[in-house]
Amino acid sequence: MAQVLGKAQERDKEKTRLSGWVLPKQETSYAPDGTWTNIDLDVTPPERRTWTAVSMLGYWVSDILSAQSWQIGASVLAIGLTYREAIWCVLVGSAVMSFAIAFNGAPGAYLRVPFPIWIRAAFGYTGGKFPVACRIVTALFWHAIQTYTGSIALTVMLAAIWPSYLDIPNHLPKSAGITSQGLLSHFLFWCIQLPFLLVRPHKLKWFFVFKAVVTITAAVGTTIAVCVQAGGSGDIWDQKPKVSGWTKSWLIVSTLTAQTGSWSTVGTNISDFTRYLKKPRTTYFQCAFFPVICFSIAILGIISASASKVLYGDYVWDPLTLASKWKSPGGRAAAFYCGLAWMVAQIGVNVSANVISASNDLASFFPKYINIRRAAVLCTITGGWVMVPWKIITSAQSLLNFMASLGIFLAPIIAISIADYWLIKQRRVEVPSLYDPNGRYAYHAGWNWRALLAMLVSIGPTLPSLVKNVKPSVDIGGASYIADLVWYYGFISAFLVYLAVTTLWTPAGALMSEAEFAAARHAEVIFLRVRDKQYSES
């Protein structure tokens, strides 16, 4: 016993020094000597390629079924449009993004590498850190939002059991933006969520299935309950728009941009998940079921919001607010289940779309010290507390503005990634060079200036919209039209500029002929066989 305690004390003492946090170097990696990596960044080994088409479907059901997805359709009603425009925006926006997700997921599915590694082929070994940093920031924002929404779900649960929970005295100033009771719920939810964030992605299949079941039943049940209480689905089918002319047209465009841009975060780094597919072509199935799932959850939110106006005199576009209004004994039981379901939903989204993504990205910056689990802890502390999530969302319009602004940085990254893999390199990528700072994708001092130029052309004209989203009172003049098209302008402009510039100034060293690619693949297969044999014998 004394010996065990002594070793434990020695390990604790070692952790007080930076050297004590060094991770074991992945012996089976492609990385050359002197370049650090770890198993979470390495090529996905066969035993971790466990996801099927059903797994991918479960992932998207888990990811899309959240309070935010429910609200995006219903919030369209809150800004003066009708269900027709809401449905159109959801269908078109999700269909466009489904193709972007499927084709941007191909590098992960075929190369078996995560987003931070693959993107080096387009931006350069060092330049690839820029899109990774952009993805970290957006993932942290979404993690903050989802975590705070999860705390609201927990409040609904606890209030359904103990109504007096809502009467906890507030000792915080108004400027804090949250009450003592709200802060307690946020802390409790954060603690409940933390263990789930530490589970490795390839082990999460059944959690996604569980989350899908409880959330679907809660979403459908909420819609049915509200419609029964209201005696129908409300005035949704006869509603007239509150705006007209150009105002209506640009509201539709803005909403379409928001719907498309809202999935830019996971669309950017979808390779972090397609790398686990058993069969690479499964990535294309996302084109079929992604829009269907988006439409289904949005239409439930729209119908519920419409019926809620009959009951409460105004549109209630938050499912948790709806559940909190059920005060009868049976209603409180239903509110508890809905609170539980949406709490699980928020945990699932944070696990699948935010923390894993940000953790992969953060690990790529500091692979010597940070793996997915350590990065997850850092991310959830930052997103859950440092970013003060309860101050991010205040109204339906601010939610739309926030989601639209995400596309400013992520849409061009997706465009450049797709153009590079499918058109420039024509899927001929040398995987070992992705891990080599002096390899084929070093370009000029580690930077591919063509990708950076495309980003600059794309982001420059859209920056006023970012200012507008941060401070709505600012007049940006004619730039507001580009702001309403921010995702589509960003994607198309970056795609065309990168394609044109790379065609005119071809980085010959970064491209491979079919013969070179075949030889490289043969050498890679031999390397993997030797590697796996050495690994199994060790």
Automatic annotation (TrEMBL):
Subcellular location: Membrane
Keywords assigned: Membrane, Transmembrane, Transmembrane helix
GO molecular function list: nucleobase transmembrane transporter activity
Organism superkingdom: Eukaryota
Assigned GO CC terms: plasma membrane
Signal sequence, renumbered to the chain: none
Transmembrane segments: 86-103, 109-128, 140-162, 182-199, 206-231, 251-271, 283-307, 334-355, 375-393, 399-424, 445-466, 486-505
Membrane topology note: Multi-pass membrane protein
Family in the record: Belongs to the purine-cytosine permease (2.A.39) family.
Protein's name in the database: Uncharacterized protein
Taxonomic placement: Eukaryota, Fungi, Dikarya, Ascomycota, Pezizomycotina
